[in-house]
Design a protein that fits this description.
two-stranded antiparallel ribbon; 14% strand; alpha/beta; globular; 12 helices; binds 2-O-methyl-1,6-di-O-phosphono-D-mannitol; 8-stranded parallel barrel; TIM Barrel
Length: 344
């Protein structure tokens, strides 16, 4: 393991004033997103959309790295036919790759999932490194329900995340460790806090057991937030406060940065939460940087503007850049809601 290389990459991923673009939708998820805006999910259309994203002029000013899906790292852009990794190098964006095999039903535990994909991972990492990937991502999902999550589900996912992370570091690639506590349900923010705390504790315990170097990884957590269907949804300040409280009780100081997922929050909510946390951070002397690794909170407005029309590419790139800029500002607590109304 080349710790110096890992630390350099991890620090560049969470560098001040930038965040990560998650665009690693697997083909079924990409199909769902494209169909929602009336676009057929062909390989050509997926490449066209991803060309729109990564070809946005100036994107590298706000985006440090982007997470690709296996298909994309092998594809060529639909404009000048460059390989996607080549386009990313030109944009100054670090190449990341999703390496998990998806969340599958956990045997014996109805309603719960475990993320698979460890088999053959060492060999796949070597192949992705040849494509220029410098970091990876693996997402585990934890569901909150009446009797959920079970300890068995938390431990199985934490163990897999740690095994994945150690394989990445062995290959000198930075692991993004993503334990997502889902927003689905009507649970309170207090319940989300308890589940997130238990999950993150289990994850760091397993990372430690497997020998993962905390200084060469990035955590991608969900925020501590009320369930989407909760009768009373906690306000922005409470989400920020409880998320920081949870992280301060679980994340080692050696971790260079935390890049949140948006998890089904609206664009504006996700930006406001990140901004408020960074404002609060000014009085807390936090050891890690707080930024974003959003998929939907950066992409939904972009997709809705594009709608598969070549004539909308410029407008879609404008709104993507606008959202990327607002989130970049939020990563230093410099965002203001009034900026939402400024022209994209
Ligand atoms: C891009 O979406 C990723 C999930 O892909 P699949 O479910 O298709 O494998 C996902 O891991 C994403 O990177 C994170 O959840 C963050 O996305 P959001 O939309 O929550 O910011």
């Amino acid at each position: 393991m080349n710790l110096q290389k890992l630390e350099t990459t991890a620090n560049a991923m969470v560098v001040s004033g930038k965040g990560i673009l998650a665009m690693d939708e697997s083909s079924p998820t990409a199909a769902k997103r494209l169909r929602a805006v009336g676009v057929e999910s062909t390989a050509e259309n997926r490449a066209a959309y991803r060309t729109l994203l990564l070809g946005t002029p100036g994107l590298g000013e706000y985006i440090s790295g982007a997470i690709l899906y296996d298909e994309t790292i092998r594809q060529r852009t639909t404009d000048d036919g460059s390989a996607f990794p080549e386009l990313m190098r030109r944009q100054g964006i670090i190449i990341g790759i999703k390496v998990d095999g998806g969340a599958k039903d956990l045997a014996g535990h109805p309603g719960e999932k475990v993320t698979e994909g460890l088999d053959g991972l060492r060999e796949r990492l070597a192949e992705y490194a040849d494509f220029g990937a410098q970091f990876c991502k693996w997402r585990a999902v934890i569901t909150i329900g009446q009797e959920l999550p079970t300890r068995a589900c938390i431990e199985a996912n934490a163990h897999a995340l740690a095994r994945y992370a150690m394989l990445c570091q062995e290959a000198d690639m930075v692991p993004i460790v993503e334990p997502e506590v889902l927003i689905d349900g009507d649970h309170s923010i207090e319940r989300c806090y308890d589940v997130t705390l238990e999950t993150q504790r289990a994850v760091f315990e397993q990372l430690y057991r497997q020998g993962v170097a905390f200084s060469g990884m990035v955590l991608k957590p969900s925020m501590v937030i009320s369930g989407k269907g909760a009768a009373r949804r906690a306000p922005v300040e409470q989400v920020a406060e409880q998320t920081l409280r949870c992280l301060r009780n679980t994340v080692p100081a050696a971790v260079p940065g935390i890049a949140f997922l948006s998890g089904g929050q609206s664009d504006e909510e996700a930006t406001a939460h990140l901004n408020t946390m960074n404002l609060m951070a000014k009085n807390l002397q936090l050891p890690w940087r707080l930024t974003f690794s959003y998929a939907r909170a950066l992409q939904q407005v972009t997709l809705a503007t594009w709608k598969g029309e070549a004539g909308n590419v410029e407008a879609a790139r404008k709104v993507l850049l606008h959202r990327a800029r607002l989130n970049a500002l939020a990563s230093s607590g410099s965002y203001d809601q009034a900026m939402e109304k400024q022209a994209a």
